[in-house]
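Q: For a teaching session next week I want to show students how multiple molecules come together into a single three-dimensional assembly. I've collected the sequence lines for a complex. Could you give me the predicted structure tokens for the whole thing so I can convert them for display?
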Amino acid sequence: MTTAERSTAAATEPLLEVTNLVRHYPVKSGLLQRTVAHVHAIDGVSFSIARGETFGLVGESGCGKTTTARQVLLVERPPEGMVTFAGRDLATLKGRELRRHRRDVQAVFQDPYSSLNPRMRVRDILMEPMVVHGMYDRGRRRERVGDLLRIVGLNPHSADLYPHQFSGGQRQRVAIARALALEPKLIVLDEPVSALDVSIRAQVLNLLRDIQKNLGISYLLIAHDLASVAQASHRVAVMYLGRMVEMAPSRPLVTEPLHPYTKGLFAAALPPDPRLARQLPAIQGEIPSPINPPSGCRFRTRCPAVMDICSQAAPVWKEVKPGHFVECHLY
Amino acid sequence: MADNTPTAGPGNGLAAREPILSVRDLRVEFRTSRGIVRAVAGVSFDLRPGETLGLVGESGSGKSVTCLSLMRMIPHGAGRIASGQVILNGRDILTIPDKEMRTVRGREIGMILQDPMTSLDPLFIVGEQVRETLRVDEAEGKHRSGWDRVVGLLEMVRIPGAKSRVKAYPHQMSGGMRQRVVAAIALSSEPAVLIADEPTTALDVTIQVQFLDLLKSIQDERHLAMILVTHDLSIVARNCDRVAVMYAGRIVETASTVDLFEKPQHPYTRALLQSVPRLGEFPETLPTIEGQPPDLTNLPAGCPFQPRCPVAMEICKDNPPPVRVHGPAHSSLCWVDALPGEPAQAAAQVPVAAGEVRP
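A: Of course. Below is the structure for the complete assembly, covering every listed component.
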């Protein structure tokens, strides 16, 4: 699995490096709250993100994409596996180094209605992180509020307004401005446009792209919508039930998907064309429980190309073409 | 002509059939602290047995309020149906007494909402919740209730192992299965019209397609007329026979699904189609619709889309746009794109053929 990192690390030193990350959550039951089972939220995930790169994580609910983000954001410390950021091992960060990490990695969440405090003016929302981290003096913070609003395409005068006075798309711009306040190196974007109207989504994605061009920030983009992730990311990884099943630069991933699950996701990402959309078959079956994932290949219960070996042995993560990795017995 | 009818689905050859539901000039208002919001501002359409009409629009376009009005479920006090007609099976259900309306809901019009977790009661097993709707009917002597019929309904929506699943609580089922239970409840009294308001938005992408295909096959079996409300044009492409695009409480364009995707006329429809991300295309900047969604308390005097419209003209500012007819069942509400040599007013007066959707 280390080859995955090496190929991208060769060009530039990666900013974020995730190696063989595992996260199981205990399931407790009964009067004594005994642990009766584990949810296999992520089971051996590895990837890296270069400076200025957008890395997309795609998958359905329960695939582990948000759990991965929680480890990167240090909401939880990864118990197994390794996450390094700018050369620092996240498992052992303390004190100043830890505060530094919390500044360097910021997040934008799905719902701009619940992620902004309705009782705070935009000015205070944007200043709070700077105050908490003791960045800049008072005058400079005020200036920065105006700068941040300009960067995200809002009028600097809107600093005096409250979140409810903005539309959904504008609120998400405020959330982006807040994430930028501490000059981060990486922003975790967890479904940043799924709560927005179709006509507003592209505006926000274009804004994120412009910000990246100007500031050189990296993004970890998490979403379920394959088409927009592919357009917005340099590289994309597809996750299923806690495993990464395919990873490639977005163009080859879209034009030559290898894993049957990726192909199925493509069919589910219906094209806006009535003649095409009606011919696409659906992936059958339901997502199995992550408490007791299928043996061997986890996708085998729904896979149209399933073989005998799939239930007996777990497939190996392989580089099939340069930079294009897949975990499937077909390759 | 053959191209004007969708290539798949029960919409074929239905042009001659009488509509089961006709909505005429529906207007719904809400009183708010910032003034009166005209959430639905003159909507008209027809729905025939066996066909699916897609209502597409962004938040605030009035698509959900339109559906709630058809069920007469606009919250009391806050909003009211200001005018219009909703003719179902030949009678205007906006004028019938409340008691009679209660039998229309469920019996004649069924409804599926977005989030199956909030439509179902978490404290009761799903079988009980299906049976409850049957009991209401039983009181009127229509059906004999019982677990057999409950199991039959869960089998109809293809819940695997329906016999044992009747005893499951909602939280023990996946989102897709829960939504199937909601569908079973909505269809239990065999309504002729089904309203599905964003039925797959809360579901995973692979499960979305499964659920849409299920609705389609039930529709084919029962000749159900369906209104599918969605913001997702890809879902329209797969499941709808005809489409009505809504903006600021108005239907701004309506056409057969194939016509709408291949020959969109209204600038908003075109922009909306362009802003759907397509797999395999990597544009340098994504096409957008500039500006913000309309503020319904403060709409321009003329066309509500004019402030964001890339081809807006002087006339659009102050004059409400006319109806333009582009084909047998294709029309739009816009000043631009007048047929050459044809004055706008003349186009507006083209009589609307019976059973046609009118903006």
